[in-house]
Amino acid sequence: MNRDDNCSVTLSAFHRFLSQRHTGVERSGNMVTTTREPDAPDAASPSVDGDADDAPALSRGKRLGLSALIVFVLLGMLASVAPRSQLREELRDVTRPFLLASGVDQGWGVFSPSPPTTTNEVVARVDRTDGTVGVYPMEGGIGITEYWDYRWRKYAEQLWRKRTAERERVAFAGWIADQDRAAGHEPVRVTLVRENRQNLPPGPGPDEGTWREIPFFTTPVSRR
How far is the C-alpha of 51 from the C-alpha of 41, rounded, in Å? Predict the structure, then answer.
């Protein structure tokens, strides 16, 4: 080996030494020794334990307030579905405003064990100056249309069932008179009639009784 070859080998070994120093790796035979220190944890990233320790604890007053609210809501929901009793009525008087405002009020009167025993429909009968009579049934449909017509049925139920709905009856009768007048007639009187029939129990025989008419409101209509 001449002098140039020795210089080349020496430079090559020196470059390998510098490379190993830079990467922090030293090779000795088949052994590899790493001299680089592990990365230090990032001080900006919070630890899981630190998050748990830093979470604010609720004060005793807040815990008592939340517990009282939960008990109040549960009592109100229980009063909504409990059997009729004096205790139930007293609980409903206290909790019903909050339940209605929060939307958690419940009513299961249409289900067992005491479903409605009658079917009721409301129609408006209009007497006209020419002696004819117009009949306006409440909105209602069959199938999927029942979902958006149901509000009309509930409105009609309140008209005949609620004693304090005098203002609603007058307004509805006036609206019916306007509809009849817009159709080219001259109404003189509007009568609201409840059509009622019995829902007979299951078994042999008919499922329902015969319809009967029960007038529950009449008002004269002024000419325009």
Answer: 16
pLDDT at 15: 56
Number of helices (H), then strands (E), belonging to the chain: the values are 6, 6
Map tokens 């009187």 to a residue.
189
* Tally of CB atoms within 10 A around 175: 13
Q: What average pLDDT is seen over the chain?
A: 78
Is pTM beyond 0.70? Reply is: no
| DSSP one-letter string for 92-115 | HHHHHHHHHHHT-----TTSTTS-
Tokens describing residue 193: 């009639």
Q: What average pLDDT does range 114-119 have in this prediction?
A: 82
Residue with tokens 């049934």: 137
- What is the dihedral angle through the alpha carbons of 77, 83, 151, 211, rounded to the nearest 10 degrees? 170
**Cα 194 from Cα 160, distance rounded (Å):** 7
Reported as a pLDDT band with limits 50, 70 and 90, residue 198 is: very high
Specify the DSSP element, H or E, that contains 20: helix 3-23
How many residues does this entry show for the chain?
224
Whether the CB-CB separation of 125 and 133 falls below 8 Å is answered with yes
Average pLDDT over residues 28-33: 48
CB atoms within 10 A of CB 109: 7
